[in-house]
# Entry
Amino acid sequence: MDFYKAEEKLIKKINQTEIENISTSESYGRVLAEDLIAIENVPRFNRSPLDGYCFNYEDSLNASIENPVELEIIEEVPCGSIASKNIGRNQTIKILTGAKMPEGASAVVKFEDVEVNNNKIKIFEKFSKNKNIILAGEDVKCGTILARKGDVVDTGIIGIAISQGIKNLNVFKKIKIGFISTGSELLEIDDNYEDGKIYNSNRYMFKAMLENKNIEFKYYGIAHDDIASLKDLYGNASIECDIVLSTGGVSVGDYDLVNKALVELGFEVFIDRIDMKPGMACCFASKENKLVFALSGNPMSSVTTFYTLCMPAIRKMIGYNEYQNKYFKVKLKNSFYKKIRGLRFLRANVQIENGEALADLNLDQGNIVIKSLINCNAMVKIENSDEAVCGMTFDCMYI
# Structure
């Protein structure tokens, strides 16, 4: 199947997860299920940004170094307290940083800019209205949309929600992803090594790639290359999970039986192999509201399909506003000396140098070369090109 057709078919199969209400203090990394709207001005009242004296600005209109204005100190207001008196003409209140402005005050002068004598101060300059005052709503006005549905909750969203007195947020529920490794040749890391076997690295790579505040990861074990074993693990995982993700058993060999097992379990296979390299061997299936993403057993093939197709679908399910991969232009720092027919993704390390995105291609792009993921932060997308040499520009996505 064409890559772009597969991408479209998969996204259409995805429904967003349900909504739950959780404590704002526990919401970091979760996805908002509704717009966050300000219910109060921030700050809620006019306040002083500095330590000084507040007064009616009109009292200073004729003030100068030669002709200072004298004001009577009638009270002191520390931060967290409220003045008990209103300010009249030719009066002032000593005010500290963050304190609420008293009634009648329309300017603040710094401590160091006045002359104090007993219970009076002298002002030596003219002030405009609201000078040195933080006005109510200057940070946030009531009714402002602070964050959109589908935004990921970050420290800023938590901070502004708490400043509004919002104790709880509606977010999309976590989804559960089950992982199955297939292949009778696999060993777990705690098993004693046997000749002809390989350790199950895919299990741990995918657990790391799925590390997300919105995902619960559960490992279901190794399915051997027989229908009964495959049906047992896929059947159990699909009951408990929203998505079952697996590696292996999707090529065309005698022991590649995942597709057959899924059909016998009642799944509809809606994608079977995709025109892309690496990652051609795969199968995507659905049954009611459950999904299976069965990827190649070759590590770099499965990683490529995961980042290019599976992650956008997962992001959509957990409510992300922007769930599709974002591509940008990069210039190659080195060359890939093979003709590219169809679509190919190349692993790379992308850095910004002098304002330009440069892609350093990994020299070994083999399907089983796990070490090529070390320091890899991007995939370069190349279609139908006779060459991909240093200096050429292509589309790229971060992973």
